[in-house]
Specification:
Elements lengths: L7 H10 L6 E3 L2 E3 L6 E6 L4 E7 L3 H17 L7 H17 L1 H12 L3 H23 L5 E3 L5 E9 L2 E5 L5 H14 L3 E5 L6 H13 L6 E3 L4 H9 L6 E5 L2 H13 L4 E5 L5 E4 L6 H13 L11 E5 H13 L22 H16 L3 E4 L15 E4 L6 H4 L6 E7 L2 H9 L3 E2 L1 E5 L3 H10 L4 E4 L14 E2 L2 E2 L8 H4 E9 L1
């Protein structure tokens, strides 16, 4: 059923009245940190503090992990009939939908995302992913290996135990669901550690899960900073798996912490510098321009697989860039609480300054920066316009590093082979796209591109049924699809001699 459109004043009134969850959700209820430490949840659209939030330190983490491990050993979730667990997780998905407006508003207030997007995309996707894994739960079959007449050999998946899901601030609800959906469906205890920049909506997930019937201690949410709370989880000997989305630098640190502790499983999705290749025979320049603009300017460019590198044949570069530049006005930053806004606030003033530093470096080196201005709004906050970079060196920082902002780096080339070579000349390999009228070129490029997802004549087409993750320093393992269970289960072979 369609809901009535709200005005910015309506949303501001709702924001003023909203109740913030500020404590960890542990053992079935909200619980204060034993040590009284806090950090601030900020509104990047105003630069003001929303509320202090409890920070769970290493000693607090010990308590939460002990509860999760005890519940797993007791089998209160893992040993329940799959059909029962499915029913509970379906109620969890329904509960997310029932709390959709509050979840969307909390996420918008804390991340600067437009409310239209958190309502229409983030919350529904979170609920849909939980539902998808719930539906999978009683349809997963074990395997039988060929044993001849001498043996019966069973291969089955078993839950690893306690899983720590450490998620970023750019899509907090969506990415959390990618972790907790399969981890819970597999029978694990799960501890969610949201980014300190985007805690509030995640804390509400704990309450919704408990209302749905997930047993106390099986799903917990711990607020805190990455180097404190996240690090304590990563090094904990009773945590059997870490599922992480974030920077490559932190991902590498988690691998070290796994080795320093109990050699826990580590699944990593670490972002990218994804390339969109547009060949000289591409006739769909308007469609390509729409996709290029959306892929880099949606969500303020704060997207792990943003199409941040445009590798375009010189023969059509000016014609394509004219179209892309014409679309910049569609992404004028505005009030996140206005349903007409397409592009909201950057996550923080400090992150915006980091992005601006890249633009300044391009100007110093003689490159061209189109757009990218910092936008001052009466209410304050961190807002900047979309940017296009031209005449840049493919070896420059702006062309190679993940800027994580609304900045499109343009690299011109001659022919498809050079384009693919440029696309692969990266530490990352999360995603890529090819725009071409030649089917043979599309297949040839897709085969050669070292990326976890390759789109042809499209970008950012997604389904929970398809795996998502990257090559090289974009990570290890896959989110989404049945392949996600690999991170949260162990394979056991039972060999019975006959």
């Amino acid at each position: 059923m369609m809901t009535a459109r709200k005005t910015p004043a309506d949303w501001q009134a709702a924001a003023t009245a909203i109740e913030y969850p500020t404590q960890a959700f542990v053992d079935g209820d909200y619980r204060a940190s034993a040590h009284g430490a806090t950090f601030n949840a900020d509104n990047p659209a105003t630069g003001k503090v929303l509320t202090p939030v409890d920070e769970w330190t290493a000693a607090d983490v010990d308590d939460a992990v002990a509860i999760a491990a005890a519940r797993f050993e007791a089998g209160v979730w893992a040993d329940r009939d799959p059909a029962e667990r499915k029913a509970v997780m379906l109620r969890f998905a329904d509960g997310i939908r029932a709390h959709a407006e509050r979840l969307a508003l909390l996420e918008t207030l804390e991340t600067g995302k437009p409310i239209s997007q958190t309502q229409a995309v983030d919350v529904p996707a979170c609920a849909g992913t939980i539902q998808w894994y719930a539906e999978c739960l009683d349809k997963l079959y074990d395997e039988m290996a060929p044993g001849g007449h001498e043996a019966v050999i069973a291969i089955r998946r078993e839950p690893v135990g306690t899983v720590a899901a450490i998620v970023p601030w750019n899509y907090p609800l969506i990415i959390a669901s990618w972790k907790i959906g399969p981890a819970l469906a597999a029978g694990n205890s799960v501890i969610l550690k949201p980014a300190e920049e985007s805690t509030l909506a995640s804390l509400l997930l704990g309450e919704i899960a408990a209302e749905a019937g997930i047993p106390a201690g099986v799903f917990q949410v711990l607020p805190g900073r990455g180097h404190v709370t996240g690090d304590a989880l990563a090094g904990h000997d009773q945590v059997q798996a870490i599922a992480f989305t974030g920077s490559t630098e932190v991902g590498k640190r988690l691998l070290v912490r796994s080795g320093e502790s109990n050699m826990k499983k580590v699944g990593l999705e670490c972002g990218g510098k994804s390339a969109q290749i547009v060949t000289r025979d591409c006739e769909q320049l308007d469609a390509a321009a729409d996709a290029i603009a959306g892929s880099i300017w949606y969500n303020q460019g704060e997207t792990c697989h943003a199409g941040s590198r445009l590798i375009v044949d010189r023969a059509i570069a000016d014609a394509l860039l004219e179209r892309v530049e014409a679309r910049m006005a569609q992404y004028e930053p505005g009030n996140p609480l206005d349903e007409a806004t397409v592009m909201g606030a950057m996550i923080s003033a400090s992150h915006q300054q980091r992005v601006q530093d890249y633009l300044a470096e391009v100007r110093r080196d003689g490159g061209q920066v189109i757009g990218g201005e910092v936008l001052a709004r009466p209410e304050g906050g961190a807002f900047m316009r979309p940017a296009i970079l031209r005449r840049i060196d493919p070896a420059s920082r702006a062309a190679r590093e993940e800027i994580f902002g609304p900045v499109l780096a343009v690299i011109e080339c001659d022919g498809l082979d050079e384009a693919v070579d440029l696309a692969n000349d990266s530490d990352y390999g999360l995603a890529a796209a090819v725009w071409t009228e030649r089917l043979s070129d599309a297949h040839r490029a897709a085969r050669r591109l070292r990326a976890g997802t390759v789109w042809v004549n499209s970008y950012d087409m997604a389904s929970v049924a398809t795996p998502f993750g990257g090559y090289k320093q974009s990570g290890i393992g896959r989110d989404r699809s049945l392949h996600a269970f690999d991170k949260y289960t162990e394979l056991k072979t039972t060999w019975v001699a006959v």
